[in-house]
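input
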Amino acid sequence: MNREGKIQEERMQFIASIAHEIRIPLGGIINFSELLLNPSLSREKILLYSNYVNTCSSSLLLLLNNLINSSKLESKQGIVVNGFIDLNTFIEECTRHFKMQSELANISLVLKYGLIGHATKIITDSLKLNVILNNLIGNALKFTKNGEIKVGYLKKRNFLEFYVEDTGIGIPNEVKSDIFKPFYQIKDKKNSSGLGLSITKSLVELLGGEIWFDSKQDVGTKFSFTIPYKQIFMK
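output
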């Protein structure tokens, strides 16, 4: 097969994968929204169905954000837009919907903060940091059936080192060199676009950091990444 034919085949596979991945959360939103219209629903079921709609909506939004970021990175339009955030509050907010998902899956989601007080007031691109964390936590939930997921960070010299650690299925040794490649999908996970980790790596590097992981099959995986630590100094 020539290069043009291969590109066309990859494009068709990608479109089919994206269509499938959009259909799953969108179907969940439609089905459970219809169930919520039942006036005789108990409060417990209303809460359960509402959480599921929220989970599906978050998954759909993450996919769309990945597609947008992929397009921007390919066209070299990826730029850093820095702003002020309180890091601990930011992590609490961007993991809120994952707490709902983890509760539904009976998985513990634990947050670990490495700084307190004014040291948490930093300058960074919050949108890109949010996408990075969302991709890593979303992957951890996808591949973890029981146990816990830890999300946290530490300050190391002039960098913040974040980590997302799970007790999931782990990454096979033979594919470890491939998982950051665009469109790569772990076997038996074809309902994934294969964009998440590739975009995550690109965004981390765009912010001036590095990303790596340590994984053992049937034990778990820990993804770590750094970004520059730029503290807000008050006069």
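quick obs: The first helix runs from residue 3 to 35.
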